[in-house]
Amino acid sequence: MSRTILIVDDEAHIRMLIQQTLEDLEDEGVTLLTATNGEEALALIESEKPNLVFLDVMMPKVSGFDVCDRTKHALGLTDIYIVLLTAKGQEFDRQKGQEVGADLYMTKPFDPDALLAKARDVLGI
User: For the chain, which domains are there?
Assistant: First the structure.
């Protein structure tokens, strides 16, 4: 069974940190994909249908909220687990995350161990 994680963030160092956090999963057959903006993310979500997406909220072109909304509602890919990652921890943003269909909302800076644990949980590893 192939398992795929998509990491979406417009900041290279954040993408790298998440990749490094999750790289041990590659030894267990997990594929890690990355995207630098919402447009790339949507294209990869449609073509690859990842199991899990770590998705930044504030990005150029298409926001993480919009990517999540399109994935869950317009594309109907409700089985893709989406974790919104953001520096914005206000209740309004959490509510918006729920409205667009996010499965989990994590604030930056995040705990790498919590990120890895969530990935293992979602993928059943």
Answer: 3-123 (3.40.50.2300)
Record the pTM.
0.95
From first to last of its 125 residues, the chain has per-residue pLDDT tens of 689 999 999 999 999 999 999 999 999 999 999 999 999 999 999 999 999 999 999 998 899 999 999 999 999 999 999 999 988 777 888 899 999 999 999 988 889 999 999 999 999 99
Contact (CB, 8 A) for 52 and 18 = no
Amino acid at 29: G
DSSP annotation of 83 reads E
